[in-house]
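Q: Convert this sequence to structure tokens.
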Amino acid sequence: MKRSSSFDYILTLIGNNITPLFLERVFGLLRQKKITVCKSKRLAQKECACIEMLLSTMLPTDPIALTKSFCFLGKQSKVDIAIQSAAGYFREKKLVVMDLDSTLVTAEIIDELAKEAGVGEKVVKITQRAMNGEIPFPEALRERVRLLKGMHTSTLNNVHKRIHYTPGAFEWTATLRKKGCKTAVLTGGFDFFAERVKNELKLDYMFSNQLEIKDNKVTGEVLGEIVDGKRKAALMEKIAQKECIPLDQVVAVGDGANDLPMITKAGLGVAFNAKPSVALVATYNITQASLTTILYLFGLSEEEMG
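A:
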């Protein structure tokens, strides 16, 4: 596909309900907005369908506002819709930063630890409030960690063994490596788990909160500066600067309120199966099961993955 003018955009449809009727509705809305479909191609049709279209307009438009205007169609059919400027779309992605809990892995690890400590319900409620942005993340983290005081490191190991990676996590990170992307996990979770995930997924960077452990037991305290939303965004910029990568070539992926600062600052910010309050704010939402579906926003086909 050739690089297009400043009035050209890329529309990506992702989901298993891309039916003729759905496409008819998409084309109808495009006609209303006086947008022409120049060409289209199918990027995937096996585990998840994906169609990419090159759009053209007589006047420049805001791709973010355009994406939002298609949201109701996507929600009705459970199809993710993203519209990017062609200039940004064809720009190479050089750095991908990711959240850990409910993004790279399926669980909120601190909630799993809390279940072991017999304080599951208390911690889950605090986690939900924090991820929805109802209480400051640092306050929520310290409150939850205090409830884990006295937990033995053997319990941490047991929880790690039962944590499942999100579908497509290994294929997603392998494809990023193959494409020459630097990768990082930036998490408000704990170093005990983040370091293991970094090694297993072969990521380049890891930043997390340091859980204080003495005599093989959790003290109930967090050491050092807490990795909250503001810190995640700052760390993303720090890594990009170190690697000499401009922010418009950075991708940020997360699901919670503490991910929004990096999601909104990155060149491509993606809310992955995000909390409702986060999905409302994020420009691009992916609601599919596999992390690999984010790669369709890069223009990659299913044959290029893994």
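The chain is about 40% helix and 25% strand.
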